[in-house]
Amino acid sequence: MIKAVSSLVVSIAAAAAFLVFYWNDMGTAALGVTLALAVAGAGAGLVFWAHDLMRDEEISEDRGSLASTEEEIETFLESFTTGEKKIARRKVLGWMIGSAAGLLGLGSVSLIRSLGRSPLPVLFQTVWRSGTRLVTPDGNPVPATIEQGTMMTVFPEGNVNATASQTILIRVDESKLRLPPGRSSWAPGGFLAFSKICTHAGCPVAQFEKTVNILLCPCHQSAFDVLRGAAVVGGPAGRPLPQLPLYIDSDGFLRARGDFSQHPGPEFWNRS
Amino acid sequence: MISRLARWFDSRLGAASFARKSIDKVFPDHWSFMLGEVALFSFIILVGSGIFLALFFNASETKVVYEGSYHALKGVQMSAAYRSTLEISFDVRAGLFVRQLHHWAALIFIGAIMVHMLRIFFTGAFRRPREINWVIGVTLLLLAIFNDFTGYSVPDDLLSGTGLRIAYSVLLSIPFIGDWLAFIMFGGNVPTQVTISRLYGMHVVIPFIILAILTVHLMILWRQKHTNCPGPGRSNQRIVGSRLWPVYSTKFVGLFFLVFGAISALAGLIEINPIWLYGPFNADSVSSGSQPDWYIIWLEGALRLFPSSDLRIAGHTVPGLFFPGILMPLFMFGIIYFWPYIEAKVTGDHSVHHVLQPPASNPVRTAIGIGALTYLLVLVIAGSQDVVAVAASVQVAPLRSALRILVFVAPVAVGLITYFFCRLVRKSGTGAVS
Fold it and tell me: What digits encode the pLDDT tens for the residues B210-245?
């Protein structure tokens, strides 16, 4: 008796306190503690009440059988087949209702069309074009004077919200470069630009270890060797980060020579 | 009064006989039978707190500039969804409390379902005639995990945005249809203008599906009656317990309030998902040490451990992500779904069971279950490998190599140890469930 009564006393007091705290906008901890005491007090009161004050006896009861008798099943099957025969007598009507339902079903699948055009082009294209100037997220052009070991995020000029085009710009020692064949002119002055979207699961490849020239994806720890054209050197990624070919214009600003070497981002079935 | 009410209903529904049988129903009393109830109660709290939050949440990607009362983010550009979450946290009275109540209830909902499921598995409660409720229960778990993920993603903060991008990439990796599926679900290359509103639509609709399936789950339980722990007088023919009315029902309501109280205390005292510290989602940033919510870390771990493996087939690509991200969980949940049938097929035991088995009395099943849990544990460690590496001051690469071996060796080793331990316990006869 004493346990149930004291639990319920706590509950009533805490409920009153909760209301006062709520009306005075007292904050999360005060609300949480008073509500917890109010409801848990009521709960404990009920459990003590049931446990200590109600006489409870253990009952043993026949489970009975879940399955019906054979006769009941037979009667059901008989009723069902009698009805089924009436439907089956008109085969043509059955075919017709089937085709109508089938056509409407196909029609409902075509509602996908409402969602807009095929996703495919979006997955291939970025807004990088030959001559596009590199800009910082604030929209400022990038001069070819930034120091070695620097990493920054850049976008195509006029498209700082084009997330598929986000790019990492890194300056390294030009003499250490070992880029794949055909890319010797892509990194003037040691400026390298790669897609910032990891080719594994699409996270931004945001960590640069400048002492070893490794780019690291913080999501699944794929590692890319910057000097070798962001080739995969560890972790689950399947292909290098696509590289953006660069040149330095007559005003000393960095520009793209074209789009990435491959489509950016995670892999998919229909990639070219 | 009661008498008049009862007569009013009975003259319209004829329910007296059913109601009498129901309040006299015999319920076995064992603490482990309350785990499912904890899940049910968390669901009720989720619905209640969710309705409150829906009054204030705005599922829109429209860019706005924050001018609210949280100083650190003043003047920052963000989505309207993120701003409304900040408003709930700082400006709505009791808003932060209800948000934390909702998040804690969601975590406990999934946790309770999982532990409930382990209890069912290790005591053989899924055997005939309850295979049907096992399959329904696994479906509920999947729906709960999926809905938790949508709810975690809609505030549009940086941490959940990272998870969303990974989920999008995993969906995209499915051969033939991945690009279309990802497109339908997220509206294109994440983030898009419709991602948050689509996820929010699902987040609100799925609870109704859960409610419908949950109702069927409980109706089947009612019809089949509970299992009994082994003990005197308990058999396939007889059930032992206490009557629903009044003791069991009073305790049932009491337990609801106790669970509610525990979740309220957590929500009031332990901060969870402080989205204002993560900042708004921004496609070109990510925070290092990003961790998903606990129930999905195993999947994240599999993505981290699976080696680099894109396949080229006749001009098409099967991304490496497909194997750990789609195929492995499909295979795993396939086994879980069909476990009652697999076990019956292998053992040849197709008979009805209403009395539970102590885990030690079935060493093979218990060993497989513990082995599977070990597998998940290794994946959970892998899902935090960067955090673990920093904490243990080792490099990520050797840690990853070690985990790649451990993920195969540890489940087998722990499974074998469990098997022999169970046999030892069974021999000494101390394995009874009390």
Answer: 999 999 999 999 999 999 999 888 999 999 998 999
Give the one of A59, A164, A218 whose C-beta lies nearest to B286's C-beta.
A218
What pLDDT is attached to residue B337?
Answer: 98
The Cα of B427 is separated from the nearest Cα of chain A by a number of Å equal to 30
Instruction: Render pLDDT for B140-179 as a digit per residue (tens, 0 to 9).
Output: 999 999 999 999 999 999 988 888 999 999 999 999 988 8
pLDDT attached to residue B289: 64
Question: pLDDT tens for residues B58-74?
Answer: 999 999 999 999 999 99
Instruction: Spell out which residues of chain A touch residue B264, defining contact as CB-CB under 8 Å.
Output: 32, 35-36, 39-40
Residues 49-108 of A with CB under 8 A from B: 49-51, 54, 56-63, 66
pLDDT bin (cut points 50, 70, 90) of residue B434 is very low
HEC assignment per residue over chain A: CHHHHHHHHHHHHHHHHHHHHHHCCCCHHHHHHHHHHHHHHHHHHHHHHHHHHCCCCCEEEECCCCCCCHHHHHHHHHHHHHHHHHHHCCHHHHHHHHHHHHHHHHHHHHHHHHHCCCCHHHHHCCCCCCCCEEECCCCCECECCCCCCCEEEEEECCCCCCHHHCEEEEECCHHHCCCCCCCCCCCHHHEEEEECECCCCCCECCEEECCCCEEECCCCCCEEEHHHCCEEEECCCCCCCCECCEEECCCCEEEECCCCCCCCCCCCCCCC
Max Cα separation, chain B? Answer: 78
Helices (H), B173-194: 178-186
Nearest chain B residue to A27, by CA = B94
Distances (CA, A) of A153 to A136, A166, A206, B317, B389: 6, 7, 9, 29, 27
Domain ranges within chain A, ordered by starting residue: 2-53, 73-115, 124-256
A220 touches B: beta carbon within 8 Å = yes
Q: Nearest C-alpha of chain A: how many angstroms from B77?
A: 12
Number of residue pairs across A and B with CB atoms under 8 Å? Answer: 251
Range B2-290 has CATH code 3.40.630.10: no
Question: What pLDDT, on a 0 to 100 scale, did the predictor assign at position A163?
Answer: 86
Q: What is the ipTM of this complex?
A: 0.93
Closest CA relative to residue B267, chosen from B112, B103, B39 = B103
Residue A67 to chain B, least CA–CA distance (Å): 10
The helix/strand/coil state of B235 is coil
CB contact under 8 A, A47 and B180: no
- CB-CB under 8 Å, A56 with B189: no
Q: With beta carbons under 8 A apart, name residues in chain A contacting B401.
A: none
Is the CB of B169 less than 8 angstroms away from the CB of A25? Answer: no
Chain A residue with CA closest to B282: the answer is A163
User: Nearest-CA residue of chain A relative to B299?
Assistant: A220
User: Considering chain B, what is the average pLDDT of its residues?
Assistant: 93
CATH fold label, A124-256: Rieske Iron-sulfur Protein (2.102.10)
Average pLDDT value for chain A:
92
Would the CB atoms of B264 and A32 count as touching at under 8 Å?
yes
For residue A166, give both structure tokens.
Answer: 């986000």
